[in-house]
Description:
A: 286 residues; alpha/beta; 45% helix; B: Rossmann fold; five-stranded mixed β-sheet; 38% helix
Amino acid sequence: MEKHELMKLKLLSANIRLDVMKMLVHCGYGHLGGSLSIVELLSVLYGKHLRYDATNPNDDNRDMVVISKGHSGPAWYATLANVGFFDKEMLMTLNEGGTNLPSHPDRTKTPGVDMTTGSLGQGTSVAAGIALAMKRLNQNRYVYLIVGDGELNEGQCWEAFQFIANYKLNNCIVIIDENKRQLDGYTIDVINPFDIKKKMEAFGFYTIKVKGDDEEAISKAIDECKQVNNSAVSIVLDTIKGQGITYFENLIDNHSVKFNNQENIDAANEAIAKLEKFVKESLKNV
Amino acid sequence: MYKLVDDRNKIGAAMNLTVVKTLQQAMNEDEMVVALEADLGGASGFSKIKSSHPQQFVECGIAEANMMGVAAGMSMLGYKPFVHTFSPFVVRRAFDQVYLSGGYAKNTINIYGSDPGYTSAHNGGTHTTFEDIAIMRTLPDAVIVDACDDVQIAWVVKEFLKLKGIHYLRANRKAVRKVYTDDSRFKLGKGNVLKTGNDILIIAAGELVSDALDAAEMLQEKGISVEVIDMFTIKPLDEELIKNEVKGKKAVITFENASVYGGLGSAVNDVLVNCPQRVKVKNIGIRDLYGQVGSVDYLKKTFHLTAADVVEETIKLLNRE
């Protein structure tokens, strides 16, 4: 990847992370950990790989995104606002009564949200159906399915993975956010996930594991998946829940964070100031 | 318009094969109609679609929850999915998927839930659903149909394919007695008055409509005049028809192969409490019982769902103070 392109993606990542923090602090609470762990992924998708028209969210030629780990809604909204699906002011309405930005994504409410998710596991099957439909209609389109590692507790994920592998739906790029934590603690303590890459391979997926905070590596992995034509494909992202902000990475319970104590508020404000500085400096170079 | 057959003992075509044939005809005209199965193609006859229209068939394996999601996803690209599985697996195993990936997300899933109530017969209690109507009624804007014969089920399948949303069709797989002539046509959400009468109003659905007509004849012989309604669309319910037809009646009987808790009985009661006229009511159906194994005849007797049971309950009701 050229340096200039990488800089642009890093800038987009910073902007997404910045807006996630602003939204959650404004709202007073929210799903911080699992939003931050997919920031770089969303930056690479919307900044490079995804085919879309922000002025026509339902464009028939677009690639589609299903974030099955629906609690990452805030990260999706911040991304969509940054690439022009709607104004950033809307971000401050997160979770308000009557908002178009509910805690968990709703395709009937938010421009750019392709599928409603929140009951974990369900996005996997819908993405499978979308991918099969695209193939049968001879459409050269991709659906990107983002799944949480904790979400893999749900049996439906594995029903869908069997289906995707059986039909060799290589147009469904399955991306697992292995941030190693879920609501009740570390995945290994809640329900041992064992080796997710090996499990995906056993299910018939061509699988690549990369660092989830490395835009270049994520982009390369997606390119590699697109070269595979005889099997399902998946990418395991090695991430950190709360990724990119050390204080929140280290916060024991960071699935949903409340900004009702000074420590959390200070840490958030410090992160926001740092990110704003980074964005300002990057803009000079991009 | 609908017309009753002359010979009500005549058996129609198998219900499942009627669904299959209707879908095949629809597929010939519309390449966006697609059938999905969860490894019951041999039982439903959907395997015939796999042979005749392989590009319009999706085998999902024994994974009903996934099948509902796949159907919802395909509908997002314009497909008109029709899924089949046994009715308990629709509502007990995959309801969250039907509800969220389907209804809440404004996607389309047409569902043939086969062998509801006692029609699970030799598959037994594990495969019996009495609760499907109650569960599906809570799904906003869902359409629920209990089809009474082959003519009606064919019409319903065609009608569902014209609509967007969640549509649930419950019916036996096997052939049942004919109610309607082949040229009969219906209207979703409109009940059919099959027989007029002055004393009693029987509101039935599904294949028990035939038994309701039997019961009406038996009561007629005892000098009791009975009106029979085929309320094949349980949701949306034809409230106007109930309000009109209850006028002047001494009693209302509801008759269903399902739990009356939240079923047709409850739905009709909800209308009756808002009628100015007070009327005696008996809900015939299932209460606190699980299913069990046996022949259809055995199960109908065991669960008190025969025409004789309707006659007995009607007379009891009329004599009740």
